[in-house]
Amino acid sequence: xTAPPIASGRVLPTLNEDGSRNWIRPRPSPGRWWRRRQVxxxxxxxxxxxxxxxxxxxxxxxxxxxxKREFHxxxxxxxxxxxxxxxxxxxxxxxxxxxxxALFGRAWCGWACPQTVYLEFxxxxxxxxxxxxxxxxxxxxxERKFFTPRRLLKYAIYAxxxxxLAHTFLAYFVGVDELAVWMRRSPWEHPTSFMVMALTAIAIxxxxxxxxxxxCLIACPYGRWQSVLLDRQSLIVAxxxxxxxxxxxxxxxxxxxxxxxxxxxxxxxxxxxxxGIDIRNGLQMECxxxxxxxxxxxxxxDKVGKPxxxxxxxxxxxxAGKPKRLVRPRTVLYPLAFTLAFGTMLTLxxxxxxxxxxxxxxxxxxxxxxxxxxIANQVRIKxxxxxxxxxxxxxxxxxxxxxxxxxxxNPLVVAGGEVxxxxxxxxxxxxxxxxxxxxxxxxxxxxxxxxTAVPWxxxxxxxxxxxxxxxxxxxxEGTP
Length: 480
Hints:
By secondary structure, the protein is α+β, with helices and mostly antiparallel strands. Among the domains are: about 30-80 and about 115-210, no CATH class; about 355-480, Sandwich (Immunoglobulin-like), CATH 2.60.40. It is built from 16 helices and 17 strands.
């Protein structure tokens, strides 16, 4: 059997020539951009931990509850009837990311993405502390020592942190109160929810312990989108090839120095990169714009007595010596689309009533005939209380004079933030219908600030003329 072919040169940053995993242990490069990212990262961690515990208008600042079918965001409540609002919110978010990328490149990836924030400012610092820094981690990798006491301790600490992050993450979907109940109960009493928590913690632990930068390179589609999200005027982390080439060690003679670029080929930008790329090869999908190469290169430039900025925030057009153009198609269309979507959402949100009423036909046949010859229609009424307090909604019917209206529950009591449904039954004589229909109006009111009238068409047999109706509303019979 012949040996498998070996690639000539590394194919991927995370793959060695023999196909084995190349473990990326970036050398930290403290600098001005690193310190700024530290501040942003730790602020984001605090916000992530605290947000589920903050309440606004009696609700969590952020809660996406699938069992309750409601979404709370900074005091706003989205109910199942708010599909349009929710879609406008998601559309605005996506357009906002597109606009941010068009202007500032992958700023989200390098500055705010949880994958980058936690990996670079929590998990990897612990790793370097326990394994003897960048050199210690590299030596353990070279010797293939993955289960030494130091690394086992690291895995255990990672497990504790992952449990905390998993519980916090779940609080965004079940709420801190429900999560506290889960934590106090035995796993045998709630096996499903316990498995959800355990699998979430295992996924987080595996991601930050083993998968790491491959989440950005393989799983996340954002890097592949950048080819259409960026243009040549977008801000990127870029190597100034005009100034840096030809690269080489510092020249000793003035003539040689005059022909040589500023790049001394020290590869500091490569060893500090968390995805293992060489930024000098130009814009690449794997670059998350973390600015580590900028700090590393600035430090080297200081040592060799050359100006900073060989690797800096720039654009492809600027590096080519072309003027900067802020106004271009995507910087005009994206803001317009964002303003339209977000403005529409805010308009609908602030003009929305305190309750939503949906009227539906009964299940089964559109109408039925009673033994006494009257025609019966079932009408389902669904009320969503958007307020935080309980409300009592009175149901009235206009246009059913001469008939009978039965409501098993009237008024309908709906708790704050809840959705309830009830049915009313309308019985009318056969001659009340014209061409198989009878127009009525259903009015729902809480007796205070909310009243809505919904035109409705009752179904019945055709062929009879409708008698004159009184404009006075009919109160459905039922619970007083």
